[in-house]
Amino acid sequence: MAVEEPRFLPRAGLQRLIDRLRNQFQQVLGPQVCDGAIVYGPLQRLQQLPIGQGDRQAPGSYRLEAAGGERCFAWANGPQALKPLLFTPEQPVWRSVRNADGQLEFLPMPAEPESLAVIGVRACDLAALALQDAHFLGDPADPWYVARREGLFLVAVHCTHPADTCFCASTGDGPTCCDGFDLALHELDEGFIIEAGSKEGATVLADLATLPVSREHWTAAQAQQAEAARTQRRHLRPAHELACLSDALMHSHWAEVGRRCLSCGNCTAVCPSCFCHRHEERPAIDGVHSAHVRSWDSCFTAAHSALHGRPVRADTAQRYRQWLIHKLCTWQDQYGRIGCVGCGRCISWCPVGIDLTAEAETVLGAAYV
Amino acid sequence: MSDAWLPQEAEVVECITETPDIRTLRLRFTDPERQRAYRFAPGQFNMLALHGIGEVPISIVSDVEDVHLFDHTIRAVGRVTRALARLECGARLGVRGPFGRGWPLEAAEGRDLVVLTGGLGCAPAVSVIRHVLRRRGSFGRLTIMQGVKHANDLLWREQYEAWAREPDTQVLLAADVATPDWPWHQGLVTELFDRIGGSLVGAVAMMCGPEPMMMAAGRKLLDYGLAASDIYLSMERNMHCGAGKCGHCQLGPHFVCRDGPVFSWAALAPCIGIQGY
Fold first, then answer.
1. Contact A321 B252 (CB under 8 A)
2. Partner B, chain A 76-115, Cβ-Cβ below 8 Å
3. What are the residue ranges spanned by the domains of chain A?
4. What confidence tens digit (pLDDT) does each residue in B216-264 have?
5. Which of A256, A328, B50, B253 sits most deeply, having the most CB atoms within 10 A of its CB?
6. CB–CB contact B253 A334 (8 Å)
7. What domains can be seen in chain B, in order of their start residue?
């Protein structure tokens, strides 16, 4: 029987949840420390989670540090979101074969359904997933995204330790997960409040040994969520004010950012909503077979805007302007909200520490004093 | 899986060398059923895929009523278009499409029409002109304007001369660099508006060509009394997918491949003519 009400899952019960998901899904992923960052990896045991691990983030800086205690989710997001799991960095689109008579055969790349469960998803990741859904599921839907999306089971964890770079409270996307999950956890010192957000989630929850949620549990959970929102130091203006960015195409500040920006594309790679991808031909040396592959692209490259052999956006200032205005302004025309979920990854992972909240503020500042 | 993501094999039936670097490929799907079912609107484009080389968006120039073949006029300018321009009869390639929104021909019915093009921008407009001439009674005065850099760049000279003999149709041609046998205007095509017989108020304009030309022409057409919503431009941007997904063709809020390539001046005004946007 499905369980609809929130329940309390003692800390040791998390292993049961992992086991339960591993019984049902081909793959179960969870956050783990790898090469100095917290990233998703195959999860079998509770001990693989970043227990007692914290992090410190700042513009251009991401460092892990010991937080102590038993908590598994006492950190802010690492460089990954859900994006690489659904919109994969590379996806063959078709293969072509040329026979001896020069005839061509174009072979589709089947979209195999995969069943995947992810533990440790944050509110900003869920918001970014909704943005990617709006893009990739819109007509004509991306068949490979659709296949992966359909088999996805999400265990969200409400964020209690936003980084210095986070601003999800100002975009309305966090730190508490509101929807889009199958299960959601409040992590407390002694265990978790666990809640189902879907029928599938409720079915899983019914198989776990849980207890009623006490008033003290709720009070503690609500207090830490309020604190996680309150401590965020960065913010973006409301969407209708950000919509004015496209009136500032000629602002002198773009040139100023352009002098700092390395045009490296790190921001677009870590951004959980950026969707640009290029199509490339990968011919085999036999001349018979060729693969047409799509892979992540970035509007910070010259090739992104190439037209007749020259880039439309020839310099870095123009590319930064394109990225920021798309993200905060024209995304609203396309999908009805801004394309930023306040995760702050582009700030932490920018090698020169460019902060989009500060850049947007400088450009808009004169308009809203 | 949607056809949008898989090319269909087509065959080059005829090649026409237009200039040393421009060729027209006349294509047909090798699957007769697909060829029979294939429909497009004037102003739409296909993605042409060359095995082992790559894929590019190219507008369809042929008559929508020709159900046996579809034509693409291609300038050899990049890696893929150079290879496309080298194809010979019998060669096979892949075709995805048609994509995009074409010219607003229904909205233009009963009105005077200006078709203003520059360089190879004339190609996507040919199907419009043919459409209008076939339904001559449904449209008002037709003004065909084409500008080229050099007189030798003019494609389809006999075609323009033939159009000029059609009823209620005016052809105005311009070349920046004229040759002794160039009987038309030397200079910019945008200098020819005064030669249009009659008022432009209430007319519909359709433009395709280099952006600076379209910007200059659009501003003049506004001065001549056309409404911003009656001036249409066919835009070009980098395109990889054709379906509004890959992100390369974005121009302000628009995905040019999906929302265009034909836009009204009113829709584009906030985001065109800005260097590097």
1. no
2. 93-94, 96, 98, 102-106, 108, 111
3. 7-79+110-230, 239-286+297-368
4. 999 999 999 999 999 999 999 999 999 999 999 999 999 999 999 999 9
5. A328
6. yes
7. 3-99 (2.40.30.10), 105-271 (3.40.50.80)
